[in-house]
């Protein structure tokens, strides 16, 4: 029996249940099943599964190589060498059939896979295994495979960067990482290849794709991770102190983004496109944490790492144990991340958190973010002991719910008008005060409709004031979505409405009062994208008006809070909160 899959792969995003929109998994019998019981067949599904099989096989080769190097495990080495030998034949076959016929027109094509991107990810693992194993005992076809792969990667890069003029693409980072590791692997095999070229390309991409605030330009948490991981991989065997100061600072800022945007429990908000909860992503987070430790000190990723490890449980492959010597020198000192409130001005994310790091709000007031952006301007995500109102992420891309629901406004806790989606637009931060935990942002997500959203964070308390003004002088149906990932209960009360968010061991209360009468309507919706078919009660706070102020106070407490809200004609909203330990007044002037 073969040690590695023999057939060509397709596009992994096709591996999704058409009924429940969850990622499929291979059953012990070899068929493709969804966790809700479906058995799905089809050519695309088989080809998608093959991608995951190939990536898993390459991951195994890499893991075995690192284990052999770390422990001297001879059997692990022999198996890794044998798998590489088989892969040399498989890749030879793939090259002889040319560019993939499974690609869709928009894809940058690969040979073994529909996408060159997939090929680059696969190649990184294969090349790293060769570097770790050394040339001794490798099948003669292995250097040939590495050369062919380098050619594929280089050709795909030419199409992407020169023909499509898209150097900033996250694909470039992966093609460069693959190039860097393939070149190093060829050097290990005794071939004179200039590996430094790919490191230079990586450092150039860092300048193109990463803003001053440390975020990859798309503003997607997942693509940020994706590109950061490619950079760290590409810099294998580089001495951190030899890197240009600006490059180290940019990489440090990227790592800091993760530590600073993470929820109190270490969960990374799934802003824009990206999975909500997926084992391979958690493993990637662990790999990034391990590689970052080799480059920088401190990284501040302990909580993020702990959360990923917890979510993985038995699926943790322990790869990070072998990554200690990734860089050729000690890590460089860098600024420690903050757990205070922080603004990322380029992507327009404002993160507010209370002094005890129990409640966190993330406001999206930045640019749309390209093809991975969502119609979600001025959404506010809430995290704490639980994912109260998280960014929902998206299912695998072949799911109709990616664009049919999760990229749309309806999936996000923000404003809709007349039932429409927002247009692609940018928000603007008007006021930011980290010390006092205050932010105000604005956007015009519909032509002629101005929205302002102000947040004020107190100790376990968040005031949220949304002002919507229709400039055409005509009333419209204005809705603000509540989009929980926990049990939600909403009730109408004389003052307006109250909401109760039941988390796992903690409870959040909302008091909702509007400047003109509005209706809080509960109904069935969808929760986060890892299980779109799971029933989730959501709510829309709706009013037919020309102008409205929608004011909410969220309080972290077991008991329903006593809150009074007043609106001054000048526009100031005042919240009076009477709690067991005294009274608090919060004024919000948007
Ligand atoms: Zn299903
Ligand atoms: Zn989104």
Automatic annotation (TrEMBL):
Query: Which part of the chain is the Heparinase II/III-like C-terminal domain?
Result: 337-428
Q: Which InterPro entries match?
A: Chondroitin_lyas (IPR008929), Hepar_II_III_C (IPR012480)
Any keyword Chloroplast?
no
Gene Ontology MF terms: lyase activity
What Pfam family is a match, any one? Hepar_II_III_C
Main location, first listed in the record? periplasm
Its keywords, alphabetically, are:
Lyase, Periplasm, Signal
Q: Where in the cell is it found?
A: Periplasm
Return the GO cellular component terms, semicolon-separated: periplasmic space
Q: What is this protein called?
A: Heparinase II/III-like protein
